[in-house]
Amino acid sequence: MVAKLLDGKELSKEIRNKLEQRVKILKEKGIIPKLVVILVGEDEASKVYVRNKHRAAEKVGIKTIDIKFPKNITEKELLLHIKKYNEDNSVHGILVQLPLPKQISEEKITCAIEPEKDVDGFHPVNIGHLFMNNPHSLPCTPHGIMQFFEKYKLPIAGKNVVIVGRSNIVGRPMAAMMLNNDATVTVTHSKTKNLSEFTRQADILIAAVGRASFIKKEDVKPGAVVIDVGMNRNGEGKLVGDVEQKGVAEVASYLTPVPGGVGPMTIAMLMEQTVKFAERSVQIVNRKVSNS
Q: With the C-alpha atoms ordered 125, 8, 93, 109, is the resulting torsion angle positive or negative?
């Protein structure tokens, strides 16, 4: 068996093409989707992510405002800037690039962004809606992963899903999305004993642990769908995932490559959510007009 690769580059391109049409309709109504991206400090990986987001936004017609602050900015100052963009009706989405310097609480910053402008989907209100199976704004990486299952018509209901990693960014919201689609979900983590006993039972295995080539061929059930969320540098400086791709491809039925798998989908979902928020703003204005 050789796994079929789930092509995130191609799927994200399809999504962007559809978004271009949606943005065109918005602009005909006088609405330009606008995304504010805030970067604090000089983290090189964060700078790359921000540049990629800016390029993707330009391609679909979203206006981005990239705001850069020095790493010594105070929490109070940053909160004041977020408040300004919360109150700006021309801004549809706000994203603060993580990680943040030690003097700034990521939790406070996440909670300061209005849930209606939270394109990352991390606000506790939005996470609560997700776990209640009434999602408003979704974390972009898990949301992007769900697009693979829709595109390739991969069944979820009744499947055993094992997630390796319990982060607030991927593992926990991913578990909620799979539960909402009627899967039986197990979340494993650094304290899980005999991890491979769990992973070998997975019909769908999602690796989001942040350790290069952590999941080996012997950890995977033959025929499993394997989603590799990892973005790591190996000893040679090469970008690799959490899954040992060559070996796992011999037993899995489907596999996301690294690079070119989950990464492009994360950015595509950020764009999709920004456009959705802009469309929602039009609906709100229309309701106000009809009720006046």
A: positive
Element containing residue 273 per DSSP (H, E):
helix 262-291
With a cut of 70, which residues of the chain have pLDDT below it?
Answer: 1, 284-292
Two structure tokens written together for 87 = 């109150």
Rounded Cα distance between 16 and 7, Å, is 14
For the chain, list the domains and their CATH numbers: 30-114 (3.40.50.10860), 140-262 (3.40.50.720)
Nearest residue to 140 (alpha-carbon basis) of 164, 91, 174:
174
* Structure tokens belonging to residue 208: 């989001």
Joined tokens for residue 96: 């603060």
Could you confirm whether 97 is annotated as catalytic? yes
Ligand-binding annotation for 172, yes or no, is no
In single-letter form, the type of residue at position 89 comes to N
Q: State yes or no: is 120 an active-site residue.
A: yes
The amino acid at residue 57 is A
What's residue 235's pLDDT?
Answer: 82
CA distance 29 to 128: 33
Taking the model in full, what pTM does it have? Answer: 0.94
Q: Are 138 and 115 in contact (CB under 8 A)?
A: no
Cα distance between residue 178 and residue 1, in whole Å: 26
Q: Tokens 């549809």, residue?
A: 92
One-letter amino acid of 205: L
- Rounded distance between C-alpha atoms, residue 142 and residue 66, angstroms: 24
**CA 91, 52, 230: angle at the middle one, nearest 5?**
115
Per-residue confidence (pLDDT) for residue 282, from 0 to 100:
82
167 is known to lie in a ligand binding site? yes
Instruction: Please confirm, yes or no, whether 108 is among the known catalytic residues.
Output: no
Taking only the tens place, the pLDDT of each residue in 179-194 is 999 999 999 999 999 9
Q: 7, 34, 53, 219: which one is catalytic?
A: 53
pLDDT at 211: 95
